[in-house]
Write a structure and sequence with these properties.
120 residues, alpha+beta, Phosphorylase Kinase, domain 1, disordered C terminus
């Protein structure tokens, strides 16, 4: 699996005897690999080491997603801030790709993501 084309998501599981395992999941189109450790610090170190190599991260890892400020047929827009800098606010537009693909108005050929500063 080429890590550069993967999504990285933090995860934890609880064993039948109550033991927690901390880790992450690396996902590609048809493949998924899970990595776990008994120590949450070790799992966090692994994730931090992999972050520069992957192209997609879980948005909730980096953003505080706030109130809903808009809704359309295919998307929702939320007010958000980066966890690293809570002072700057952004609009985050999320879309369900399946509903766009199934639509007769499927005119979206390329979706770009940009940070837009909201003036308050």
């Amino acid at each position: 699996m080429n890590v550069k084309n993967c999504r990285l998501k933090r995860n934890h599981v609880k064993d039948t005897d109550g033991t927690y395992f901390y880790g992450f999941v690396i996902m590609a189109k048809t493949k998924m690999h899970e990595f776990y450790s008994l120590d949450s610090r070790t799992a966090n170190e692994w994730m931090e080491a992999l972050k520069p190599s992957v192209i997609l991260l879980d948005l909730k890892e980096q953003l505080n997603i706030g109130k809903l400020i808009g809704r359309g047929n295919f998307a929702k827009v939320h007010l958000c801030t980066r966890k690293s800098n809570n002072m700057k606010q952004f609009a985050l537009k999320t879309m369900v790709k399946d509903s766009i693909k199934k639509s007769k108005r499927n005119i979206v050929s390329n979706v770009c993501t940009d940070e837009l500063r909201l003036d308050s």
